[in-house]
Structure to design on (168 residues):
């Protein structure tokens, strides 16, 4: 089984955040791979990965990094595949990583989610893949419908809370 998504992180310290993406892909039954690569410490391996990702079956790359956070941009510079950047809160509340990932030059896009937003990165990757895969598209629709159901149930629960001056 070839991975459709590659989860790349600068170091294993990012795993506690990125595990949410892996859990989501497992739940959705989407094949994925997980690797640690560093734009600064292993640039040759980053280049090899990025240039071979498509041939290895990868459709979307999720790259997480903190602080200087160059990994998503470097990968995007080396592959035409979509790259989703996840800024990691390693310092400065993750704002340094967010700005490093989101401020890419024209022609080198990185779709960027919130600081520590691994779950949204996984959902976005699933939506991207779903544009060309009906089974994954249907799983995405079911997931989003379940989100709606949760809100309906939440409102039903909130309706049971009684207050003298509550108007709904």
């Amino acid at each position: 089984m070839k991975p459709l998504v590659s989860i790349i992180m600068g170091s294993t310290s990012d795993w506690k955040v990125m595990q949410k993406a892996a859990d989501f892909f497992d739940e959705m039954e989407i094949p994925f791979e997980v690797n640690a690569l560093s734009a600064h410490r292993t640039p040759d391996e980053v280049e090899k990965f990025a240039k071979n990702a498509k041939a290895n079956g990868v459709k979307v790359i999720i790259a997480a990094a903190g602080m200087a956070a160059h990994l998503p941009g470097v990968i995007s510079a080396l592959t035409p595949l979509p790259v989703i950047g996840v800024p990691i809160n390693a310092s400065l509340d993750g704002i340094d990583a967010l700005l490093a990932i989101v401020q890419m030059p024209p022609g080198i896009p990185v779709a960027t989610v919130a600081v520590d937003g691994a779950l949204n990165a996984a959902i976005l990757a699933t939506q991207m893949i779903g544009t060309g895969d009906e089974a994954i598209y249907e799983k995405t629709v079911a997931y989003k419908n379940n989100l709606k159901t949760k809100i309906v149930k939440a409102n039903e629960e909130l309706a049971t809370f009684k207050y003298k001056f509550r108007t709904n």
Q: What stands out?
A: The mean pLDDT is 97. Residues 76 and 109 are 7 Å apart (CA to CA).
